[in-house]
Specification:
It contains 13 helices and 16 strands. The protein has helices at about 5-15, 55-65, 95-110, 120-130, 130-145, 155-160, 180-190, 215-225, 230-235, 280, 310-320, 345-350, 370-390; strands at about 25, 35-40, 45, 50-55, 70, 80-85, 85-90, 170-175, 195, 210-215, 240-250, 260-265, 275, 290-295, 330-340, 360.
Length: about 400
C-alpha cells in the first residue's frame, strides 16, 4: 500500500479484514493525507473536509470503528451565495429564475441536457440554465466543491460520475472531528497487524507485487507510468490546484450570519472561494464564532501569502459582514498541490484504467469521484480489485 490518506487506509482496512498482510508506506509523518483535526484552546479546526455525506456505506464505516455520528444541525441547511454585496439563499432575481426555467425546459424537450463531448461546465450551464444562473448559482456552487472555476471544469467529468446522489444530502462527522475517524481507523489497522512506515517516499513499484497506489495524481503518475504508460500520461495530464484553508475564531455577535456557509462567485470581488461556519454545522465545536475561509489557485504564487493571510480574511469578511473584527486566533493549512481539477483529463484517466496490470490498483480523488465519502468507496473498490485477482497484497 502506497499512501496512508483516507482512501489508502480504507483499502488497507478491507484487505486486512480479508486476512491479507498489509504494509503501508507514507511520505508524510502521519496518516490522514488532507484529512485531520487540530484541537485548539478555541475549538476544533478541520484541516480540510468537515464531514461525510451520510449513506449506508458511511454508516457501516462508523459502526466498524465504533464511532457514534454527530449529524449536522438544522441550522446548517441555510446556505448562501454572495451577490450584489450581500449573501442570498437564492441569488437569482425573478426574471433570471424564469429564464433559467425556460432554458432548462428547452434543453429537456430538445434532449440537450447531457454534456456535449468535452464542453466545460460554464458552456453546459449557459446552454442548459442560461448565463445568469450559471454565473451566480451553478459556478459558485461547483467552485466551492471542486475548487476550480466553471470554465476549467469538464461537464462530463463533473456530472458523469456514477452513483450521483439525488435529493438533500445529510452530513455527519465524528464528535471529535474528522481526525477522530483517521485516528480510530489507524489504531484499528495497527491492532490487525498492518505495518506503517512514515516519512518514506516510494520511487518505484516492484512488478508483480500486489500494490494499491493511494497517492495524489502527481505521485501516482510517476509510479504507474512504467507499468501502464498511457494511463501514467493521462494521470500526469490532470491539472492540480493549490489550496489554503484558514480557520479564524471571532467573538460572537448578535448580527453574525448563521448557516452552513457562504460561497463567493468570481465576480464578487472577494478573494475567497467561500467561508464555512463549522460551529453552526456541528454543535459544540467552539464557544466562539468559527469561520473557515478557503482560497484556491493554479499555483502557490496565486494564494494569499502567509504574511497577508489574516489581513486578506479581514478584507473579505468586511465585504461579507460590513465590519472589521480582530480575530482571537487564526490557524492556516496550506496545500500545494491539493485537489485535481476536474477537467477533460479526468475522462482520459477513466478511459485508460483498463491498462492497469492485475497486481496494481489505484485509489484517489482523480479517478472521477470526489469527496471523502467517495474516497471510502474508491478504497473499497481498490481492495476488491486485488482480491479478485487472486493475489495477496
Amino acid at each position: 500500500m502506497i499512501g496512508a490518506g483516507l482512501s489508502g487506509l480504507a483499502a488497507a482496512a478491507c484487505l486486512a479484514d480479508a486476512g491479507v498482510h498489509v504494509e503501508v508506506f507514507e511520505a508524510a509523518s502521519a496518516p490522514g493525507g488532507l484529512i485531520g483535526t487540530l484541537r485548539t484552546p478555541e475549538g476544533l479546526v478541520e484541516r480540510a473536509a468537515n464531514a461525510f455525506v451520510w449513506s449506508e456505506r458511511t454508516a457501516r464505516w462508523f459502526e466498524r470503528l465504533g464511532i457514534t455520528p454527530q449529524f449536522a444541525s438544522d441550522r446548517s441547511r441555510r446556505r448562501f451565495i454572495f451577490r450584489g454585496g450581500r449573501p442570498h439563499r437564492f441569488p437569482l432575481g425573478a426574471g433570471e429564475a424564469a429564464s433559467a426555467v425556460v432554458h432548462a425546459a428547452s434543453a429537456w424537450v430538445g434532449g440537450r441536457m447531457k454534456p456535449a463531448g468535452r464542453e466545460s461546465v460554464a458552456a453546459w450551464g449557459t446552454r442548459v440554465m442560461g448565463p445568469a444562473a450559471t454565473r451566480s448559482l451553478l459556478s459558485p456552487a461547483l467552485h466551492g466543491i471542486y475548487a476550480a472555476p466553471a470554465d476549467r471544469l469538464c461537464a462530463a467529468a463533473v456530472f458523469g460520475a456514477r452513483g450521483r446522489r439525488r435529493g438533500r444530502t445529510v452530513s455527519a462527522a465524528p464528535p471529535g472531528g474528522m481526525g477522530e475517524f483517521i485516528e480510530r481507523l489507524y489504531e484499528r489497522l495497527r491492532g490487525q497487524g498492518v505495518s506503517f512506515t512514515f516519512d518514506r517516499t516510494v520511487d518505484a513499484l516492484e512488478p508483480g507485487v500486489p500494490t494499491v497506489v493511494a497517492t495524489n495524481a502527481v505521485a501516482a503518475a510517476r509510479l504507474v507510468a512504467p507499468h501502464a504508460p498511457a494511463l501514467g500520461d493521462a494521470i500526469r495530464a490532470v491539472p492540480m490546484n493549490c489550496m489554503v484553508t484558514a480557520t479564524a475564531f471571532f467573538p460572537p455577535r448578535a448580527d453574525d450570519l448563521h448557516g452552513f456557509g457562504v460561497l463567493f462567485p468570481r465576480d464578487s470581488h472577494v478573494a475567497a472561494l467561500g467561508a464555512l461556519f463549522n460551529a453552526d454545522v456541528f454543535e459544540g465545536r467552539s464557544r466562539h464564532r468559527l469561520e473557515t475561509w478557503m482560497y484556491g489557485a493554479d499555483s502557490p504564487d496565486g494564494l494569499p501569502p502567509e504574511s497577508d493571510l489574516g489581513a486578506q480574511i479581514l478584507r473579505d469578511r468586511e465585504k461579507l459582514a460590513g465590519r472589521t473584527d480582530e480575530p482571537i486566533s487564526v490557524y492556516a493549512t496550506r496545500r500545494a498541490p491539493a485537489l485535481p481539477v476536474y477537467s477533460a483529463a479526468i475522462l482520459d484517466v477513466r478511459d485508460r484504467l483498463a491498462d492497469l496490470p492485475s497486481w496494481l490498483a489505484l485509489s484517489g480523488n482523480y479517478l472521477g469521484r470526489i469527496g471523502v465519502s467517495r474516497l471510502l468507496e474508491i478504497g473499497e473498490e481498490a481492495a476488491a480489485r486485488l482480491a479478485a485477482s487472486g493475489r495477496a497484497a
